[in-house]
Amino acid sequence: MEVFIIYKSVIALAVFAVSLGIAAYSTWWERKFAGLLQDRWGPSRAGKWGLLQPLADGGKMLFKEEIIPNVSNRFLFVLAPGLFIITAIMAGVLIPWAPSVVINGETYAMQVADLNVGVIFLLSVTSVGVYGIMIGGWASNNKYSLLGAIRASAQMISYELAMGISLIALIISAGGSLSFADIVKAQDAGIANIVPQFFGFIIFFICALAETNRAPFDLAECETELVGGYHTEYSAFKLGLFLFAEYINMFVSSAVMAGFYFGGYNFPFAHEVYQALGLAEGSIAVSVIGFLVYFTKTLIFISVFMWVRWTLPRFRYDQLMNLGWKTLLPLSLLNLAITVVVEIFRGNITF
Amino acid sequence: MQLTNRRKVVSDKHQTLSERIYFPAVVKGMLITFSHLFKKRPTIMYPEEQREIAPVYRGRHVLKRDENGAERCTACGMCAVACPAEAITMESAERKRGEEGLYREEKYASTYEINMLRCIFCGLCEEACPKEAIFLTDRLVESEYERETFVYGKDKLVEKIDQRIDVTKRQTPEVIEFKKRPGLKHNSLFDKTQIDRHRKPH
Predict the structure, then answer these.
(1) What is the dihedral of CA A259, A296, B30, A330, to 10 degrees?
(2) Which end of chain A is less congested by CB atoms within 10 angstroms, N or C?
(3) What residues are paired with B92 via a beta bridge?
(4) Does any domain span residue B93?
């Protein structure tokens, strides 16, 4: 029992630390990548290649003056960033980072919690995340904040549907388990879910952009119209928490996409490679390699998020709604129907 | 009723299918930005790397000393008169006995100030100077936090005796000719018509 508690807390702490570290360095990579895409160099002064930039930014955020507006609801105003970052980190508990390690006959899953309702938990946690934005925007008592919050919640509701339905199609074609670990394990056989569910992946990816409030769906904080959107009134470390949570969200949804559609820690001919290297399944070395593979995929997805941001202009509000309700929702339903029909013909669904 | 003949019928073109589903355009745009990852960057990392400047670049001024280390400037004020930006001010003083090593002639500038925020670096002061005392160099005016510090006094303008600044690139043919005759104190004392190439006769 003690061993179980220790190993779970180590993994939980590691996931927590890695989430925060990735969030910090995402800000650096976002700026660097934006620079590279725009024929610039990006941050290059703080440390080698500007690698100390996140520390400088964090220090700046810490030491700035903290302003709480008089007219705001103080309790909710302080609560909102905390709520936002907690829900952002919470989604990370599901991710199975590496193949399970077997020591003395005991199996240790490299995952904080293997919920058998993982997918539902994921969807619910990401939708709770919008409460942070809503409460923050409402408590600020500022029209721009409120507009940003309204946009964020409307967007969340519109895109959650299409996202959920494309996930249902994924679960049907991936064997019917709602557990994240099972979904990743099912792709062990060599074919990642992207192959049967390419259409679903595109829908999921677009929805993930909208769910994480990333461009081209960053209407909730569009600087050109709403000053700063829902975090207009926030300053210093509370603002930092909001920005941080957004990057954690991005990290988690990248990991989710890599796990759901691109096989997570699996890679083509994984078993053959392990055999050639003489590594036994369940050993620590296999786990480390699996982790590196998963992590690389996640980082690539984070870069794709940024690549999209620095390419596409922002949607107008009505375009956003049209795309969500009139395009993505019907398409995801169509995708679901086709998946069901295909699975019935393959004999995976019985009545 | 047609008021002008510049009327233009605005096209009301309907979007084609590929335009309406956005996706081809999105992919195209993404590929364009991706291609920029590998393009050459025009950035010059300033303090480490400096832009190549023209041989006759006009940067921050220097007040020259002569070969014995005495200041050449006699505070005649020609530069201040020539200056279109009115950036130069000076006060003159008379050289005392024993200061011959410090100042080349009997009169010298006790203060000499150039406001670098006013200066337009046209080089007319240099052209007006009869004593070959002021030159524009290839150095840059550094950035400062206060406006006042941009008014450069003699402490910043006069070259240090042990750190002489090479201005041969900015010297006109007559100056180089003048330098060859150490006995002369004024460059108008010899016949310039032989070498004067670009100055119009008055």
Answers:
(1) 0
(2) C
(3) B109
(4) yes
Q: State the Cα torsion A199-A202-A205-A211 to the nearest 10°.
A: -80
Distance from CA of B202 to the nearest CA of A (A): 52
Looking from the CA of A301 toward its CB, the CA atoms found within 13 Å total 29
Domain extent, residue B95, equals: 61-171
Interface probe, candidates B15, B20, B30, chain A, greatest A C-beta count within 10 A:
B30
As given in the structure block, the two tokens for residue A262 are 């691109």
Q: Which residues of B touch A36 (CB under 8 A)?
A: 36-37
Report the predicted TM-score, pTM, of the whole model to 2 decimal places. Answer: 0.77
Q: What is the pLDDT of residues A182-213, one digit of tens each?
A: 888 888 776 777 878 888 888 899 888 888 88
Q: CA-CA distance, A26 to A215, in Å (whole number)?
A: 15
Q: Which residue of A has its CA nearest to B21?
A: A327
ipTM of the complex: 0.75
Residue A9 structure tokens: 């807390």
Of B120 and A266, the one with more pLDDT: B120
Indicate whether B178 belongs to any domain: no
Residue B104: inside a domain: yes
For an interface test with B, give the residue of A30, A201, A312 to mutate (most B CBs within 10 A): A312
The CATH code of the domain that includes B119 is 3.30.70.3270
Q: Which residues of A touch B33 (CB under 8 A)?
A: 37, 307, 310-311
Q: What is the DSSP string of A158-179?
A: HHHHHHHHHHHHHHHHTTS---
B5 domain residue, yes or no: no
Assigned token pair, A225: 């119209």
Q: A316 touching B, CB under 8 A?
A: no
* Confidence tier at B202 by pLDDT (50, 70, 90): very low
A44/B36 touch (CB, cutoff 8 Å), yes or no: no
Query: Is the confidence at residue A175, as pLDDT, over 80?
Result: no
Q: How many domains does chain B have?
A: 1
Residue B139 has pLDDT above 80, yes or no: yes
What's the mean pLDDT when you consider all of chain B?
Answer: 82
Per the CB < 8 Å rule, is A311 touching B30?
A: yes
Nearest CA to CA, how far is B116 from chain A (Å)?
Answer: 28
CA distance A341 to A335: 10
How far apart, in whole angstroms, are the C-alpha atoms of residue B180 and residue A322?
A: 83
Q: What's the gap in Å between the CA of B6 and the closest CA on chain A? A: 33
Q: Nearest-CA neighbor of A14 among A85, A131, A103, A97? A: A97
Q: What letter represents residue A350's amino acid?
A: T
Q: Are A136 and A230 in contact (CB under 8 A)?
A: yes
Instruction: Please give the average per-residue pLDDT across B151-174, as a whole number.
Output: 83
A120-150 core/surface letters (b: 16 or more CB in 10 A; e: else): ebbbebbbebbbbbbbbbbbbebebbbbbbb
Q: What backbone torsions phi and psi does residue B91 show, to the nearest 5 degrees?
A: -130, 140
Give the angle subtended at the CA of A25 by the CAs of A20 and A27, to the nearest 5°.
Answer: 105
